[in-house]
Amino acid sequence: LFTDGITNKLVGCFKQPSEGADAAGTPEPEDVVLIRVYGNKTDLLIDRRKETENIQLLHRHGYAPALYATFANGLAYQYVPGVTLTPHTCQDDAVWPLVARRMAQMHRVQPDGPANPKPDLPAKLDQFLRLVPDRFTDPHKDERVWKVFPSVAQLRNEFEELYGRLLATDSPVVFCHNDLLLGNVIYDERRARVTFIDYEYAGPNHQAFDIGNHFTEFAGIDEIDYGRYPTPEFQRRWLRAYLQEYDKGAPVTDVAVQRLYVQVNQYALASHFLWSIWALIQAEHSTIDFDFVQFGATRFLEYRQRKDKFLALRCDDD
């Protein structure tokens, strides 16, 4: 049983005895199948049919593990050798360029469907807000939540105002992972390769949201430290590597890097907002041993703290 996730439960099934095991008894990747069991009530948050389609689409492009089977409350998929990123390795010079390039490659994927799809962000936020309970079943949670958060109506108005500002940055809509926390990036040091996993929220969205969301995850989950949010210097290096891949090797100007830098940091605000609301729903329904109220409150307070500074950022060519 893998215990890092805060949405689902993940079980590894190993062939025993493994004929392909090495001298240390480590099984070969083909001898392992991963079974993900969906968290309680997560069907309220996630379109499982769409998730299956996303995995199949990205596997065809070589960006996702193979899907072996789906069932009522989970799925089975290919094991990917490697280790998940940590708040330290995500800024390692051997690792972050791989992540930047892989995200750029994924953003170039053209899924089936409309030529100009609408971004998922506003609809997903609306869905989440509709699921926030008026009163939490646990009175202690209820008290803790409403000490930090305003009413759902006020949250809705706040996001509408924020999203209006974000739309003005003109971030393009691409195929996004939308949940690229560190635990969803597998780093294979031997092959110098990264693989993204868990495409539950994948779909069309603003390019800058996907990158900004990833940067917010540098803070970690169990012990969140927003002092680890990447510096402007690091971000610009990361974004330049991303654009070199996304633009297929065309020259990348400082102006293009700065424009994306502004977009990414402003959409990072939307990431904080979205996942803080998600955490409130999880606080009501999840059976996983995790303090979702604290997680949501921390992200919402970080949103408030960063909002004015990030929205004040400007591109050099404005």
UniProtKB/TrEMBL annotation:
The keyword Transmembrane helix does not apply. Pathway: Phospholipid metabolism; phosphatidylethanolamine biosynthesis; phosphatidylethanolamine from ethanolamine: step 1/3. Keywords: Lipid biosynthesis, Lipid metabolism, Phospholipid biosynthesis, Phospholipid metabolism. GO terms for cellular component: cytoplasm. InterPro entries: Kinase-like_dom_sf (IPR011009). One of its GO terms (molecular function) is ethanolamine kinase activity. Its EC number is 2.7.1.82. It comes from the Eukaryota. One of its GO terms (biological process) is phosphatidylethanolamine biosynthetic process. PANTHER family: CHOLINE/ETHANOALAMINE KINASE, ETHANOLAMINE KINASE. Belongs to the choline/ethanolamine kinase family. This is ethanolamine kinase. It comes from Anopheles melas.
